[in-house]
Structures are given as C-alpha cells and as structure tokens.
C-alpha cells in the first residue's frame, strides 16, 4: 500500500520501508515523526483520495539522518551594466524511513527499540595535523576565524596541507563540512602561492 503525504509544501509518494529526503524537520536520528497531512492512500482501484486530506490517516517515519544538500548556485547578471552576482546556499535536509501507513484513526504501534547510536561526538578528524607550528589560515581570502577553527579541528593547519589537497580530498571536505567545493579549490590555489 502506498500513501501520498505533504510536508514542506511538497508531496511525496511513499510506501513502508521507503527512505526519502525531505526539507529539514526537527529531530535526532532514531526519533519517530508523524505526517498527518495524507492526501491519498491505498492501491489500484481501492485508492482513497482526500479533500484535501484523508480523515483519520497518518504516516509514521523514523529520522535516519540530518544532512545538507549540495551547493546551489544562484547567478544573476545584467548585460552591459557591469553587474553580476553569484551566491551559494546549501539547504538543510532530513532523511526519513517510512514505518507505517495508518488509516481509520489507528494509533501508531509502540516505538521499536532503537539500536545503540554510533558515537558522533568524538569522530576522528579528516586529516592528521603535521607536527610543528600551524600557519595563520585567516590570511587566505575567504577563511575567517570560525572557518579556520573548523579546518584546524579536522587537522588542516598549514598552507602546505591546503595546497596539497586532491580533488578526492575536496569531495570529502565538501561532504562533511559547511564549505563548497568551489570555495575549497579557491583556498587551495591561494595556499599554493603562500606555501612557496
């Protein structure tokens, strides 16, 4: 059986055990959330449609993880005006696993025993910091004190390290830190000049 739910101003067709990506919802991994705005449910000719929502229908889901999408670039240019603007944004998103599709006012079953959560507080840094004195990364245009602190937490402390980043390293940083690949590539080029 499938259901069509509405969340974040969008509609999703879901079935039990589906993992879907939706706009950011509050909750930690393992939390159970409920979608009360069900537009339709059923299968084939027996499908039921709401006006706009089906009374007594509900979909429960478990939060799998909280994440951020890839960078979306908004570029605006006015021709012959010497005017252009480029901005980037990484929207927040939530991955949820559909547990149950409930109809007729049924109550959700008791929350299943959650598996022990993996420790995330003491996650290992992406890189190993070299011995010796760290460089002042704030010298690089685009790296402020906060960004420099975040890079140092991941083991990036010198210009030489930034200059030696490979494209694969940049993808790892892009996936786990709030910096876009374009930003990091720009920092890498600046670091190459500073590391000489």
Describe the structure.
The protein is α+β, with helices and mostly antiparallel strands and 196 residues long. The chain folds into two domains: 101 residues, no CATH class; 58 residues, DNA polymerase, domain 1, CATH 1.10.150. Helices cover 19% and strands 33% of the residues. It is built from four helices and ten strands, in the order ββββββββββαααα. The protein has a four-stranded antiparallel β-sheet with strand order 2-1-5-6, with no helix packed on it. Strands 3-10-7-4 form a four-stranded antiparallel β-sheet, with no helix packed on it. It has a two-stranded antiparallel ribbon with strand order 8-9. A hairpin with a 4-residue loop joins strand 8 and strand 9. The protein is elongated, with a radius of gyration of 23 Å. The chain starts with a strand and ends with a helix.
Topology, please?
Elements: E1 2-7, E2 10-15, E3 19-23, E4 32-35, E5 38-42, E6 48-49, E7 58-68, E8 72-78, E9 83-89, E10 92-102, H1 145-153, H2 159-163, H3 167-176, H4 181-194
Features:
196 residues; alpha+beta; DNA polymerase, domain 1; 2 domains; 4-stranded antiparallel β-sheet; 10 strands
Give the mean pLDDT.
Answer: 84
Helical content (DSSP H or I, runs of 4+):
10-25%
Number of strands: 10
CA(first)-CA(last) distance: 63 Å
Low-confidence stretches at least 5 residues in length (pLDDT < 50)? 113-122
Alpha-beta classification? alpha+beta
Radius of gyration over C-alpha positions, nearest whole angstrom: 23 Å
Please state how the strands of the largest beta sheet are arranged side by side. Answer: 2-1-5-6
Strand content: 25-35%
* Pattern of helices and strands: EEEEEEEEEEHHHH
Number of separate domains: 2
**Major pleated sheet:** 4 strands, antiparallel
Number of helices: 4
| Global morphology | elongated
